[in-house]
Amino acid sequence: MQKQNLVLEEQGFSEIINQIQVLKNVKPKESWVISCRAKLALKLEMEHKREMLTKDASELRELFTFWQAWQPKRAFRPAYAVAVALAVVMGGGALTSLAALQSVPGAPLYPVKIALERTGLKVAPTDSLKMKMQKDIVGSRLSELRVLVKNHDSAEVKNEKVAQVVESIHQQLITDKEQLPQANKPNGSEKSLAAAKIVSARADQVKKAITQAKEKLPSEVNSNLSEKLAEVTDMAEKTSMQALEMMIAKKEQTEADKKDILAKFDEIIKEKELAIKTLAAVGQQASKVKSSADKLPINAVLINQADEADDLLGKVETSVKKEAFGAALETLKTLNEIVKGAEKIAETVKQQDKGVIELNSAKNATSSALIDSSK
């Protein structure tokens, strides 16, 4: 009996071995193998991502807490920001880096953002990549400017933050303007012309953004910030004009080059038309204010300069139609100086009118009070 059981067990083992041999010879479809491997790899990758996000969130919380609890002295803040930026990048803190890139002045991670940008510029392997990064940085500053203008900070805080962003934009414009003359090298004319077009577009973008910001900033803007905004606008204007001059100076202009120049002049003409109309409107409005200020010659000067600017603009348009771009540019330079001076006069006129209107309102209120008291 015992011997019979051993025989049965041996037969059972033999059957199992035979089945295993059969299974060894089974070859699954290659598509099924690839699918299973892909699912396994995806699962492993998702687990890795979940761990990284958890780590980043923890780092971000700790960084915010630490930064708020301790801020180094002003002299050490730049180096401190660079150190933190490098630690974040080397540590694989993707979420922290992203949070820094979305920050604005006043946020704890803003110094890290600036440090990341500067580090990126220093290690950029090519000039074209560096120029693209500079474009992105200016775009980032302009986005910050729009956010800050809309924020509900106090006038003092808003002035300080806006001034920080505007100064950064100003420095970038200085860099752009200094780089443009290098484009006159014969072996790099095409690259330089392309760079000039990029710089020109960037300068125009800055000018429009600053103009919009000035309109939305509170009336309590301090004089230093007002001067800085005017300085940046002027720098953007000069940078744009210098880039246009380079485009015009190209010896053999293709039809595409002429098209770009015509488009640039068209933008400038529209911009100057609006500026001249604004100046004329200020002069007309000033003449309606009844006071001794009306008799001052400043209004007449403003109106005369607006008329002169309008005449020069007509000459620019005529030269552009004849494709006499050099003559158009020289006339445009004179026009810019006249408009710039007229805008300063217009600002003075507006301040005078504002004071006169306030004075008249006070007089009317006093008269009404006296009449009421006599009844």
Automatic annotation (TrEMBL):
Regions that span the bilayer: 79-101
A Pfam family recorded for this sequence: DUF5667
InterPro entries named among the record's database cross-references: DUF5667 (IPR043725)
Claim: Transmembrane is one of the keywords in the record: yes
DUF5667 domain sequence ranges: 103-219
UniProt keyword terms in alphabetical order: Membrane, Transmembrane, Transmembrane helix
Domain of life, source organism: Bacteria
Name of the molecule in the record: DUF5667 domain-containing protein
Taxonomic source organism: Candidatus Portnoybacteria bacterium CG02_land_8_20_14_3_00_45_8
Lineage: Bacteria, Candidatus Portnoyibacteriota
